[in-house]
Amino acid sequence: MMQPLKRITQTIAYIVGAYPCGRPLSSNGRPPSNNHLFPNGRPLLLLCISLILTLLLSACGFPGLTTTSQQLPQANQTPEQSPLPPLRLPQDESAHNDLTEWWYYTGHFNATDPAGKLHHYGFELVIFQALRSDLPPVYASHFAISDITRGEFHYDQLRQTEVNASIPNGTSNKGFDIHIGDWSIRGLNGQDHVTAAMKDYAINLDLSALKPPTLYNGTGLGSDGLGGFSYYYSRTRMTVTGSLTDHNQPMHVTGLGWMDHQWGNFLTLGGGGWDWYSMQLNNNAEIMLYIIRGATGQIISTYASYIDANANNHIIHPNAVNATVLDHWTSPVTGITYPSGWRIVLNDPQFQVTLTITPQLKNQELVTYQSTGNVYWEGATNIQGQVNNKTTNGEGYVELTGYTKP
């Protein structure tokens, strides 16, 4: 994590200063006045102190570099330890009693305004859940719109502590239904609904899975490393329908979405980062790729998966994966320089893939110190290239974390 003590100081100031515990940030940066979780000042102060201590003890945990795209591996197991239970759906769609969890949506949709003009957008909506000791769960959320037609990127963030959170921990068949302020996600068996609003933009979307969930590594469970264990599945192709309000103008939208759900007893660690790519191709296939970097920038892990038109999950050997950066972009806000354009090659016996990925907007950076203590780039992309010598194109999302100002 970049300058961890500075991030801790910022978050402590956030907790005990202008943003009291248990209150989500509104779009204007102020806590809403109708939150009465802690009417008595003493419990509020005690909870704030507890959160500060927890933060100091897990500096790079939550808030920290928290994102869906890093595979966070299983803790080392000794023969005395019981094996981890298998992932089960729909039981595991809902929240768990684990340190870290998130539900992550990205996608693209189109809308036609009353004048008949076609508009194109990308969107991101994520909710994080963090459990520490016996403290109430802490939730954070990011909502972003890439307004491709206008050439603009907008985002907002919320955070709250929920003392009455319902955490089924694999015992419910009812899916998830999580609210932070007036933002929400709800889902069961690939039939999801999401809502969020910020200045000039609001979404009210239904997402319906066109394929069964794709389990990470074929099982949904990470299996190596020292950082803890992680369950992980994706819904790689979901229809998106519903409404977008763009500058007070409601419009009907249609498109494609991608959903990730990841959880486990892990803390995200500083000193490195990752590049995560989701690709939805016009041959009805998807590719998920992530590359994890160590503290000095060296690649320490690569994972690639090709989900074919019949929803078969083909895991690509890391040696068959090559990602080349084609361009860079420097943020005028943070001064951080990010990769900005890539060539992805999969040289697999079954799948010969060469794709060029181009950001639909250069600036899709989220500075989210007030909610998760980090800054990252996540944005809508165009894709063109070949799969098995056949021309293909598509759209996707790329997430970049761990990049710092020189």
What is the CATH topology? AttH-like fold
The CATH superfamily turns out to be AttH-like domain
The low-confidence parts are 1-80
The CATH level-2 architecture is identified as: Beta Barrel
Write the layout of secondary structure elements.
Blueprint: H1 4-16, H2 41-57, E1 100-112, E2 118-130, E3 138-147, E4 152-161, E5 176-180, E6 183-188, E7 191-198, E8 201-209, E9 214-215, E10 231-246, E11 249-264, E12 273-281, E13 286-293, E14 299-307, E15 313-316, E16 321-325, E17 328-330, E18 337-339, E19 342-347, E20 352-359, E21 365-368, E22 374-387, E23 390-400
Antiparallel strand pairs: 1-2, 1-11, 2-3, 3-4, 5-6, 6-7, 7-8, 8-10, 9-10, 10-11, 12-13, 12-23, 13-14, 14-15, 16-19, 17-18, 19-20, 20-22, 21-22, 22-23
Short synopsis of the structure:
The chain has 406 residues and is mainly beta. 7% of the residues lie in helices and 47% in strands. The strands form 3 sheets. Strands 1, 2, 3, 4, 5, 6, 7, 8, 9, 10 and 11 form an 11-stranded antiparallel sheet that branches. Strands 12, 13, 14, 15, 16, 19, 20, 21, 22 and 23 form a 10-stranded antiparallel sheet that branches. Strands 17-18 form a two-stranded antiparallel sheet.
